[in-house]
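Data card: per-record layout.
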Amino acid sequence: MVSTSTTTPDEYLASLPEERREIISAVRDLILQNLPEGYQETINWGMLSYEIPLEIYPDTYNKNPLSNVGLAAQKNYNSLYLMAVYQNTADYKELMDAFASMGIKPDMGKSCVRFNTLEQLPLETIARLIAKTSVADYIRIYETTQASRR
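The structure for this 150-residue chain is written out next.
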């Protein structure tokens, strides 16, 4: 997992080498342009986090804000975490189809897409998937997932 001593998104970006800052800034701009109302941009989990504040939804399993999207510059790659996409079969398929249409086999973990350049990401699809998940939708996805784990 990535770590940072920065406390604001601007400090986080300023702490990155210029080449990484350009890539992370471009993905951050895409996220911010498409993020539905109610999410908050913070530094959490050692990265940029786009989450539902505890004031809106305090009932999380770990008592931390519910993070929908995360963005980080790791040691050898960048990471884009798409938690709602990972938890929604149709959205996950749409993301995989977008990679396939680009002729790219994604480098992925569960909710994490690892990338080094913007050309490795289906940016239009990612923007659409982020935009379609309202705070209420993500809370429903989260609660459904948590209920199935019990």
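Known properties of this structure: The chain is about 45% helix and 20% strand. The beta strands are 40-44, 47-52, 66-73, 78-82, 107-108, 112-115.

See the next section for split statistics.
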